[in-house]
Amino acid sequence: MRLALPYSRWFWAAARKAASESTSTPNVDQTNWLVNLSSRTHSDAETTLLKKGLNFAATPINIPATEIIAKVETAISLLAS
User: Fold this and answer.
1) Distances, alpha carbon 33 to alpha carbons 36, 48, 53, in Å
2) Would the pLDDT of 27 be above 90?
3) The pLDDT of residue 26 is above 80
4) 3 state DSSP class of 68
């Protein structure tokens, strides 16, 4: 879909340029990304997990869908009254 706006030509040119540029990550030395401030040494698995950062979240194996639905329905009924 093309935009029929004055800036559409500029937008599509920029989009083509961005798509054609390489998106590879440069080779970065990651050894200093994690600083251990404790006296305890970390295993390789712990270091790998910590390097994932604060945006990492473990995915649950089972999602309690019925429990979630029941709690949402209860909350909605409390809002109505």
Assistant:
1) 10, 11, 10
2) no
3) no
4) helix
**Cβ–Cβ < 8 Å for 34, 50:** yes
The structure's pTM equals 0.37
The tally of CA atoms less than 13 A away on the side-chain side of residue 76 is: 6
**Residue 6 per-residue DSSP state:** T
Asked if 36 and 42 touch (Cβ cutoff 8 Å), the reply is: yes
Element (H, E) at 24: none
Read out DSSP for 25-48? PP----TTS----SSSPPPHHHHH
| pLDDT band (50, 70, 90) for residue 42 | confident
